[in-house]
UniProtKB/TrEMBL annotation, chain A:
Taxonomy of the source species: Eukaryota, Viridiplantae, Streptophyta, Embryophyta, Tracheophyta
Biased composition (Low complexity): 1-17
Database matches in NCBIfam families: DAPAT_plant
UniProt GO BP: systemic acquired resistance, salicylic acid mediated signaling pathway
Coiled-coil features, chain-numbered ranges: none
HAMAP family: DapL_aminotrans_1
GO molecular function list: pyridoxal phosphate binding; transaminase activity
Domain Aminotransferase class I/classII large: 94-458
Keyword annotations from UniProtKB, A to Z: Aminotransferase, Pyridoxal phosphate, Transferase
Cofactor(s) listed: pyridoxal 5'-phosphate
Native organism: Herrania umbratica
Signal sequence interval, chain numbering: none
CDD domains (UniProt xref): AAT_like
UniProt name for this protein: LL-diaminopimelate aminotransferase, chloroplastic isoform X1
Region Disordered: start-end pairs: 1-22
UniProtKB/TrEMBL annotation, chain B:
Keyword field: Aminotransferase, Pyridoxal phosphate, Transferase
Pfam family name, one: Aminotran_1_2
Location of the Aminotransferase class I/classII large domain: 71-421
InterPro entries hit by this protein: Aminotransferase_I/II_large, DapL/ALD1, PyrdxlP-dep_Trfase, PyrdxlP-dep_Trfase_major, PyrdxlP-dep_Trfase_small
Family: Belongs to the class-I pyridoxal-phosphate-dependent aminotransferase family. LL-diaminopimelate aminotransferase subfamily.
GO annotation, biological process: systemic acquired resistance, salicylic acid mediated signaling pathway
GO molecular function (one): pyridoxal phosphate binding
SUPFAM superfamilies tied to this protein: PLP-dependent transferases
Name of the molecule in the record: Aminotransferase ALD1-like
The organism of origin for this protein: Herrania umbratica
Cofactor dependency: pyridoxal 5'-phosphate
Length: 463, 453
């Protein structure tokens, strides 16, 4: 039975009601839900061998000891499991999901019609295309370069189109291999740490400090303006840095990023800069690490159409690996990344790429900005609600995430209480690392009425 | 033979066997260029060449540079050419349009795939072998799944591959750190077991002489040889895996091309669920090479030595290093598995099968030993005594036809050329004609059976 809790398809939809959809493809939204596991402080993935007594046979293949180091399921499926369990308990609850950062608003017509057009063209002789270049379609790479990196000296062949930043992070880890060390912000997007563990770069998880041995955790708190004190950070080969930050919402200033680039240069490190939320920036903080002089020799940048264009399900992103970025022996990192892209991947879907190209036309950019403006307004509303309740609130200016402080409280407990009492799903800060303890991440994606209703419920709970 | 070699060296001054020239790449470092202190991944250093298919593309481009007006026909990379049936592409178009509506918009999907699609895959391909939909993981294709499986298994397992085999098995193994060093003498990686598959053993390895490995990659119908393993052979394989406590990774990407009674899934063999994973793809099935959709089956019964279910770890990788196949592609996949869609796809497959027949007949008529072509869209042609890259180059130079040299698939592919049967009918016919002309005119060079002493 408990195996099911690991296998149940994660319910990652953020909508609180089941939509009737035009095709049967969309209508199947019920999931096989898990039996709720006992409440505990750290969310544990219960993994018991299925019916071992009935199946005596075991292979002689040893389990990958790196995966065995992982403490629990990946964070977001865990949150989804909790949501599903909650729905089992309260089948009529109007659950509002401000947990998993999943976009909710329809994709603008100009973009979907390009994808529809490409789909239908695949049924014609002239329009059919088979394998595309693994690095991405030329036109899209060129459009990405000119839209986001013009005047920064990043060229179209520095850009690798992908099926998303999460997948790219995994591929970058495969490039780097198990013999590199890495640093992450604390708190940070869990894929950096988890992929590092899987790759064998880390030691065991240390329960007392809730950190993996061998990873350098760079604490980011309100006290240090969510930028690590680099003078206390040990050298590592790789530094993951996300700005605007998931989960804290902090956007690093030009000065901070200049420090970071200098730090990387001095230490001979490589920055993996995650710019997935750059388009949510409200001030003039750098959108790309390559705005900082010298960054091309020390940084890789990953980005995604997910939160830009609502492509969370369509799957499209990109990674920039400058030609100037070299390993210690002078070998270009881009060549190894290219090799991984050609061997372990086969290109993003051609239909998704057609959508991406439409996103970058003037009409597409304008339409995207409108949807993003909508989510930014949501963020304002949520920030306002928590502020008015007297909470210390961070983020929300440059990212669609609000980082709310619950001093002295266990974040999974707060998560559970909010869920139980208001039927709102959030994300517990400790899921992003020990530095997230005492915080809750509230994501601002959602239909306006849901966001407003959620704020009303927060008012009720905390007044 | 000498004449051929002379021709080839005249044709291109460079070495024909592609070798990644590493030294010159270091020169990229400019005068005041900064090198990081990050060591290069030693596993990537072990790779000998570029991945095979980009290398073939490169040769094609070089050839087109040289002969800009040449009418190049590609029978190289196995890329589908025929349009996707309308019902399927319309489904994808409709799904895309629906993403602009409140009711039809979807965000993140389940990483394991859309529930309806998983169910349809289980029911279409695994109905009688009791694979459950929760054991089906939808992906963006087999090449990606192979690497995710390697990531799941880790660097400490040993693998066996058929020789020749689809290069992603070996390359991903090297990348993840399982393979050890490349040995120039044998053309093999130290820790990989190469299971020779040739006409002499009916393209099925002699398992009595095969050392135990943790994992066995097995592709049937086979790329590149085209051989589909018989039920008996697969029973042997399953038994071998069971006796050795090994895991078979069974690649069934070409199952739809089977024309005889060969098993289409490893799970047709009793006991396979406890020893095998199956990977498959919509690429060659539905022309989805660019759309990107595939699946992997990991039975719940498959356990590591500790008793821990493999499916749990695969699921963890899928949730952490992947975020699901494109929802539009998945809508297309579901349409493929509707009865109308499936029928339309079978017509396209029949078209490629007819292409294959034409190519098989061409080589037969020339007296060359050509294998495969019955259960797969590949013809595996033997050129005894000749180096496959040389034959590749000669064919390209003289007929403007791209093929794939057999040694790109492993040392067991030396002396063979893989001809893929994807392409428009007229081009296949044209290619056949050009090949006939070349090979019959240069009988001595190509050593056809008629000329053997």
């Amino acid at each position: 039975m408990s195996l099911m809790s690991n296998l149940s398809t994660s319910m990652t939809s953020s909508s609180s009601s089941a939509f009737l959809a035009p095709t049967s493809f969309n209508s199947s939204r019920t999931q096989r839900v898990s039996v709720p596991v006992k409440s505990f402080k750290i969310c544990k993935c219960v993994s018991t061998p299925l019916e071992q007594q009935q199946t005596d046979y075991k292979t002689k293949v040893p389990r990958n000891s790196n995966i065995a180091k992982l403490q629990a399921g990946y964070l977001f499926p865990e949150v989804a499991r909790r949501r599903a369990a909650h729905l089992l308990k309260y089948p009529n609850a109007q659950v509002i999901s401000l947990g998993i950062g999943d976009t909710t608003e329809p994709i603008p017509d100009v973009i979907t019609s390009a994808m529809a057009k490409r789909s239908q063209a695949l049924s014609t002789l002239e329009g059919y295309s088979g394998y595309g270049a693994e690095q991405g379609e030329k036109a899209l790479r060129a459009a990405l370069a000119s839209t986001f990196y013009s005047n920064l000296g990043i060229e179209e062949d520095d850009i690798f189109v992908s099926d998303g930043a999460k997948c790219d992070i995994g591929r970058l880890q495969v490039v780097f291999g198990s013999n590199v060390t890495m640093a992450v912000q604390d708190p940070s997007y869990p894929a950096y740490v988890d992929s590092s563990v899987i790759m064998g770069q880390t030691g065991q998880f240390q329960k007392d400090v809730e950190k993996y041995a061998n990873i350098e955790y760079m604490r980011c708190t309100p006290e240090n303006g969510f930028f690590p004190d680099l003078s206390t950070v040990a050298r590592t080969d790789i530094i993951f840095f996300c700005s605007p930050n998931n989960p804290t919402g902090a956007a690093a200033t030009r000065e901070q990023l200049t420090q970071l680039v200098q730090f990387a240069k001095d230490n001979g490190s490589i920055i993996v800069y995650d710019s997935a939320y750059a388009i949510y920036m409200s001030d003039d903080s750098p959108r790309s690490i390559f705005e900082i002089p010298g960054a091309k020799e020390v940084a890789i940048e990953t980005a995604s159409f997910s939160k830009y264009a609502g492509f969370t399900g369509v799957r499209l992103g990109w990674t920039v690996v400058p030609k100037q970025l070299l390993f210690s022996d002078g070998f270009p990192v881009a060549k190894d990344f290219n090799r991984i892209v050609c061997t372990c991947f086969n290109g993003a879907s051609n239909i998704a790429q057609a959508g991406g190209l439409a996103c970058l036309l003037p009409e597409g950019l304008e339409a995207m900005q409108e949807v993003i403006g909508f989510y930014k307004e949501n963020t304002k509303i949520i920030v306002g609600a928590f502020n008015s309740l007297g909470f210390k609130v961070y983020g929300g200016q440059n990212a669609p995430y609000v980082w709310v402080h619950f001093p002295g409280q266990n974040s999974w407990d707060v998560f559970s209480e909010i869920l139980e009492k208001t039927h709102i799903v959030t994300t517990p800060g400790s899921g992003f690392g020990p530095g997230g303890e005492g915080f809750i991440r509230v994501s601002a994606f959602g239909h306006r009425e849901n966001v407003l209703e959620a704020c009303r419920r927060f008012q009720q709970l905390y007044n | 033979m000498y004449k051929l070699l002379a021709c080839c060296s005249m044709a291109s001054g460079i070495s024909l066997q592609p070798k990644m020239v590493q030294a010159s790449l270091g020169v990229q470092k400019q005068g005041n260029g900064h090198c990081t202190n990050v060591p290069r991944n030693v596993n990537l250093e072990k790779l000998q060449n570029n991945y095979l298919f980009p290398e073939i593309s490169k040769r094609e481009l070089q050839h087109l540079d040289k002969y800009p007006n040449a009418k190049v026909i590609s029978l190289g990379i196995g890329d589908t050419t025929e349009p996707i049936p309308e019902k399927i592409s319309l489904s994808m178009a409709n799904y895309a349009r629906a993403l602009s509506t409140a009711e039809g918009y979807r965000g993140y999907g389940a990483e394991q795939g859309n529930q309806a699609l998983r169910k349809a895959i289980a029911e279409t391909f695994y109905k009688n072998v009791l694979i459950r939909d929760k054991e089906v993981f939808v992906s963006d294709g087999s090449q990606c799944d192979i690497s995710r499986l390697q990531l799941c298994l880790g660097s400490k397992v040993t693998i066996a591959v058929q020789d020749p085999s689809f290069p992603a098995y070996i390359d991903s193994s090297v990348i993840i750190g399982q393979a050890g060093d490349f040995q120039d003498k044998t053309g093999k990686y130290q820790n990989i077991v190469y299971m020779q598959c040739g006409p002499e053993n009916n393209f099925f390895p002699d398992l009595t002489t095969t050392p135990r490995t943790d994992v066995i990659f097995f592709c049937s119908p086979n790329n590149p040889t085209g051989h589909a393993a018989t039920r008996k052979q697969l029973q042997q394989l399953v038994e071998f895996a069971r006796d050795n406590g090994s895991i078979i990774i069974f690649d069934s990407a070409y199952a739809a091309y089977i024309t005889d009674n060969s098993p289409k899934s490893i799970f047709e063999i009793p006991g396979a669920k406890e020893v095998a994973i199956e990977i498959s793809s919509f690429s060659k099935f539905a022309g989805f090479t660019g759309v990107r959709l595939g699946w992997t089956v990991v039975p719940e019964e498959l356990l590591f030595s500790s008793g821990f279910p493999v499916i749990n770890d695969f699921n963890r990788i899928v949730c952490t290093c992947f975020n699901g196949a494109s929802n539009i592609s998945q809508a297309g996949g579901l349409a493929c598995l509707s009865s109308e869609g499936f029928q339309a796809i079978c017509s396209v497959i029949d078209y490629y099968k007819e292409n294959t027949k034409i190519l098989v007949n061409t080589f037969a008529s020339l007296g060359l030993k050509a294998y495969g072509g019955v259960n797969a869209p590949y013809v595996w042609v033997h050129f005894p005594g000749l180096k496959s890259w040389n034959v590749f180059a000669e064919i390209l130079e003289k007929t403007h036809i791209i093929t794939v040299p057999g040694s790109g698939f492993g040392p067991g592919g030396a002396e063979y050329i893989r001809i893929s049967a994807f392409g428009q009918r007229e081009r296949i016919i044209e290619a056949s004609w050009r090949l006939e002309k070349l090979i019959s005119n240069e009988k001595a060079l190509f050593n056809s059976v008629e000329n053997k002493e």
